[in-house]
């Protein structure tokens, strides 16, 4: 992914009730990202968002006063789109289709349409007719099915999942932007939290949030002339695996796995020339704790089924072998469909995060798990 | 533990109708396909008295004419429609006070049509 | 109200003995052995014991029966909306074999009415009766008989999510209505596949057929859903991903097994549950 960089990041506050329209959230985050990059709306000529976003590119362009767009695109599959928005923007920049591309995601996911509820609209697809009518109609339920099999095959326990939640909440506790700022949890609290869908406790599930995040992607050469140090897109990839479904890829041989993330990882290592041991910080998509374990395995940080030992012995805290989600992740900071994680990766490379890890050169970022997904390596 | 020889029964419409009449069961679902379909079935299907009789036959075919059947206990599962094949399998699992207990399963293409036990005194 | 009526009917005790139309006779025994293909040489000098109920069947034009507890209890349940019926258990005990010339009579009593129970078929009540056959005053055979009287598509499932059907998936939902679990099978190369689709991913043929699965399989993974509320379902409930003996996996609610007793590897068989205009496959322990 030659020649593209993230030049600016912006966000609204993260809340449970923004009190404003989703379009206004998008416009606020976009303006803030442009200001961070030292650019104006009139510099923007490209936009990328999620197919799930309710704000069209032209609506956002109207609000910002962006006069012309030569590139606009959407990425499908929920949170799996997050890193791919940057990939598509970088490809547009590399081909000359656009020079300054805004990537954005804005929603009132807590006060408006909540993903954690059973969506009767989602049930109305032929594909979902194999799961929703059978009683499996929530994201937690679909992940729980994989988690149970993972536990069965590798001996992982609910406490292993709990270690992820405890670490994320510890990171969020020292991040003033995080919803759970100042509110760490213990493993016992995790274990005592109520069942959502067994084997998942409440504290295995990320929160629901209102908010928006925007990123500005431009060429490396242009980024070097801007006020912020450029954060290079060292690698960017999408991935969809065999017999792929959205959240319910239950019919392929290995259920306790994420082959689409494995594919993303293989591309990231190849493009960047790096390996897992070169990663200083990982921002792993954490809408549900079990998938953090499986990602560690698919991305090559440990062997298959060994993530529970990696968590217990090496650690994913700020002082661990691999610091994961210093901002607190979606479990701790906010659920903005993975886009807030990319913003944290940018801060870690810039060296100005509130939970800064020392000497960061390379940050791995992943997008939604259980769906066709994407990933990035950002670096100096 | 003895495994009984398998019994295969081709469940033709003729078989369903003739056994229903031989057991004096005149419910339309056992002889009238149109009425059976109107009541939500796929086709006419075996009646319970015949299923009970077949379970007994499966055991006495093996045990011989000198055997005394003391009881037949069955649990009914999926229906057995016309044109299906019903396959009985079973095994003698225990004997106490001279009574042998035989476990029987009758399967068709849809699953277990009948599962149960037959208590029999062997000659 | 159902329980009160059940107590009233049970309190009536055994019904008056109703005599068989005919004495035990070789002609009917021969009709029976011929139809069932039973070559046992002990018949027709002796009657097949499993024929005991045949002697007292009511025939083609049954007279109204005032004292039949099963008919009385069924009427009560029909009235309460439990209009569908399926027999679940039949346990016969034979004290001795009958011989031609003997004349049997039968008496029945209501043994138990249990419910309402959630079942794969719908909410229902299990009705158990006990019958005794006599020759003179000698009991010669007994039977426990249990039925399930149920409400198909009952209230608790009326608002449940229903599948969306396409031309590619229609055969599956037509099958469940007939009590068949249909698994797509490529007519060209024979590969089985679930969920189904229009083109075979192995050979790209556009000729999908199907096989009727045995409906037997094992739990490959499962969840217990506690939260949030799900339309048409009582919480908690179990959803299982089952690996069928045909080699494909399929999701369905696992019914009749307490959540703590579910485990990976549990042997199950398919059942069918009507929901609105559709019938969903569900799993039952076997
Ligand atoms: Zn094929």
From TrEMBL, chain A:
Coiled coil: none annotated. Pfam families: Thiolase_C_1 (PF22691), Thiolase_N (PF00108). SUPFAM superfamilies: Thiolase-like. Residues 251-372 form the Thiolase C-terminal domain. This is Acetyl-CoA acetyltransferase. Residues 21-219 form the Thiolase N-terminal domain. It comes from Kutzneria viridogrisea.
UniProtKB/TrEMBL annotation, chain B:
InterPro entries: HotDog_dom_sf. It comes from the Bacteria. This is Acyl dehydratase. It comes from Kutzneria viridogrisea.
UniProtKB/TrEMBL annotation, chain C:
It comes from the Bacteria. Residues 210-273 form the ChsH2 C-terminal OB-fold domain. Residues 173-203 form the ChsH2 rubredoxin-like zinc ribbon domain. Residues 46-143 form the FAS1-like dehydratase domain. It comes from Kutzneria viridogrisea. This is DNA-binding protein. Residues 1-23 are annotated as: Disordered.
């Amino acid at each position: 992914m030659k020649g593209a960089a993230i030049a600016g990041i912006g966000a609204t506050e993260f809340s449970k009730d923004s009190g404003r329209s989703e379009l206004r959230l998008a416009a606020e985050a976009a303006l803030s990202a442009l200001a961070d990059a030292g650019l104006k709306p009139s510099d923007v000529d490209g936009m990328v968002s999620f197919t799930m976003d309710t704000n069209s590119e032209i609506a956002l362009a109207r609000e910002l006063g962006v006069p012309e767009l030569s590139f606009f695109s959407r990425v499908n599959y929920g949170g799996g789109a997050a890193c791919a928005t940057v990939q598509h923007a970088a490809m547009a920049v590399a081909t000359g289709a656009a020079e300054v591309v805004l990537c954005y995601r804005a929603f009132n996911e807590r006060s408006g349409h909540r993903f954690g509820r059973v969506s009767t609209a989602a049930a109305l697809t032929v594909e979902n007719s194999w799961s929703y009518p059978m009683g499996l109609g929530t994201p937690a339920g679909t992940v729980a099915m994989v988690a149970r099999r993972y536990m069965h095959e590798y001996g992982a326990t609910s406490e292993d999942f709990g270690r992820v939640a405890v670490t994320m909440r510890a990171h969020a506790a020292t991040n003033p932007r995080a919803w759970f700022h100042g509110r760490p949890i213990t493993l016992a609290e995790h274990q005592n939290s109520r069942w959502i869908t067994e084997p998942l406790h409440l504290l295995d599930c990320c929160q629901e949030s209102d908010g928006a995040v925007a990123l500005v992607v431009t060429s490396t050469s242009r980024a070097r002339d801007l006020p912020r140090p450029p954060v290079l897109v060292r690698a960017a990839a999408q991935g969809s695996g065999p017999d792929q479904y959205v959240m319910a890829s239950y019919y392929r041989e290995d259920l306790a796995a994420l082959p689409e993330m494995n594919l993303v990882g293989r591309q990231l290592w190849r493009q960047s020339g790096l390996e897992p041991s070169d990663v200083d910080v990982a921002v792993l998509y954490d809408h549900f704790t079990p998938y953090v374990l499986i990602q560690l395995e698919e991305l090559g940080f440990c062997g298959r089924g060994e993530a529970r030992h990696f968590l217990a012995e090496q650690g994913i805290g700020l002082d661990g072998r691999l610091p994961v989600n210093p901002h607190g992740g979606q479990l701790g900071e906010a659920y903005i469909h993975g886009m807030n994680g990319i913003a944290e990766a940018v801060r870690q490379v810039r060296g100005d995060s509130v939970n800064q890890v020392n000497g960061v050169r390379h940050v791995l970022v992943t997008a939604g798990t259980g769906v066709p997904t994407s990933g990035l390596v950002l670096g100096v | 533990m003895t495994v009984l020889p398998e019994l295969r029964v081709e469940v033709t419409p003729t078989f369903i109708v003739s056994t229903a009449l031989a057991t004096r069961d005149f419910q339309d679902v056992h002889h009238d396909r149109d009425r059976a379909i109107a009541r939500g079935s796929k086709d006419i299907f075996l009646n319970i008295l015949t299923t009970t009789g077949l379970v007994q036959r499966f055991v006495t075919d093996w045990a011989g004419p000198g055997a005394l059947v003391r009881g037949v206990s069955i649990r009914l599962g999926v229906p057995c429609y016309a044109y299906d094949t019903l396959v009985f399998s079973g095994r003698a699992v225990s004997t106490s006070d001279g009574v042998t207990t035989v476990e029987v399963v009758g399967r068709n293409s849809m699953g277990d049509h009948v599962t149960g036990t037959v208590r029999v005194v062997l000659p | 109200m159902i329980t009160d009526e059940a107590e009233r009917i049970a309190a009536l005790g055994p019904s008056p003995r109703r005599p068989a139309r005919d004495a035990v006779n070789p002609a009917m025994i021969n009709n029976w052995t011929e139809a069932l293909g039973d070559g046992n040489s002990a018949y027709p000098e002796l009657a097949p014991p499993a024929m005991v109920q045949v002697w007292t069947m009511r025939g083609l034009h049954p007279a109204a029966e005032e004292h039949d507890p099963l008919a009385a209890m069924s009427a009560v349940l029909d009235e309460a909306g439990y209009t569908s019926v399926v027999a679940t258990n039949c346990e016969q005990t034979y004290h001795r074999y009958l011989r031609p010339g003997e004349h049997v009579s039968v008496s029945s009593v209501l043994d138990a009415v249990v419910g309402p129970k959630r079942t794969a078929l719908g909410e229902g009540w299990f009705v158990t009766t006990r019958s005794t056959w006599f020759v003179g005053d000698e009991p010669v055979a007994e039977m426990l008989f249990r039925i399930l009287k149920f409400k198909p598509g009952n209230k608790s499932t009326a608002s449940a999510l229903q599948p969306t059907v396409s031309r590619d998936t229609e055969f599956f939902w037509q099958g469940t209505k007939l009590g068949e679990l249909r698994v797509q099978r490529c007519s060209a190369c024979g590969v089985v596949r679930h969920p189904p689709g229009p083109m075979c991913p192995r050979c790209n043929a556009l000729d999908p057929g199907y096989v009727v699965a045995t409906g037997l399989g094992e739990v490959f993974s499962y969840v217990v859903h506690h939260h949030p509320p799900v339309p048409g379902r009582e919480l908690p409930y179990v959803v299982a991903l089952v690996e069928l003996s045909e080699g494909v996996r399929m999701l369905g609610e696992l019914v009749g097994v307490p959540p703590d007793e579910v485990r990976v590897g549990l042997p199950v068989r398919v059942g069918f549950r009507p929901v609105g205009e559709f019938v969903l496959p569900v799993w039952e322990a076997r």
